[in-house]
Metal chaperone (Aquipluma nitroreducens), 322 residues
Amino acid sequence: MPVKPKIPVTIVTGFLGSGKTTFINNLLLQNYDVKIGLIENEFGEVSIDSKLIANYQPENIIELNNGCICCSIFNEFSLALQELVKKNDHLEQLIIETTGIADPGPIIEPFFQDPDLERLFELSGTICLVDSVNFQEEIGNFEQQKQIMLSDLIILNKVGDADETKLAYVRKKISALNRTAQLVETNFAFLDSAHLYMLQPQIQDEFIKKLRRPFYSEPEHSDFHSFTIRFSGYINEPRFREWFKYFASIYRKQIFRIKGMVNFENNPLTGIVQSVGGMTNISEGSVANPYEPLENVIVFIGKGISKFEIEKMFQQYLLQEN
Ligand SMILES: Nc1nc2c(ncn2[C@@H]2O[C@H](COP(=O)(O)OP(=O)(O)OP(=O)(O)O)[C@@H](O)[C@H]2O)c(=O)[nH]1
């Protein structure tokens, strides 16, 4: 019997809100004829990202929520990969989207050390998205530094929103952290030739060298935490847009990332609510499922934030609405 070729794996990493899901969406659209499996790992308890992946077959997506695969849910990760291959016999490519605060080291390592994974997969490379607007405030984070250090391709994203001085600073810092990775600059993570980087498992030697560097250590997450708030009913869209902007700007130092799905009055499409470092964006998703309970779900990731306080803010706002 012919030996089955190993499935190439690409790890997509990058700090909170840098553009990972946007990039993967572009990639899936450009490679619609390739059978791609997708692992979505979210730090929060609910997966918003898998719902933001456009027109993709749910059987090819695995959600691993409520923890980071680089530490707490590692066994689940290895078994999930094996299960995905069992279920999808003809898988041609695997993409893993890490959480924004993942240390990619322990995610890369099993592909060289776990015999079950080594038999099935071959690592193509790690791609790191960097948010050029919020970089200066984020770079102190150990996780982001490691994401940059361990990557083979760095996508400097949101360049249209950053001025030249900022961009020069970001480029310099990136090259100080990683001299070997290729650097490309994008808006909305659009990379024409993205598939070229994914489909060639060419850089394994580089990986092994990087993994042997002395900085490599146990994963560590500064003191990030995440929580979800849920409430029912419809929201007035113009009023919410205004209030959400205000809310995200006053908490921008503590709340790095907000993402959620809400139901707007007189709009059959789900509202997708996002904020990265206080920069907000509200867009329309798919038509809400009439058979699912009508619920608004919003996930927060940050440092030193109180769920009680945020819930109170939302309650006050909702009371004003009615
Ligand atoms: N202005 C601007 N916004 C962008 C760009 N790229 C992505 N975004 C927005 O930034 C937000 C975060 O993008 P995502 O692709 O969800 O980022 P992510 O890295 O997957 O986020 P997490 O998984 O939560 O860490 C969304 O509102 C995107 O629409 C860009 O180039 N410019």
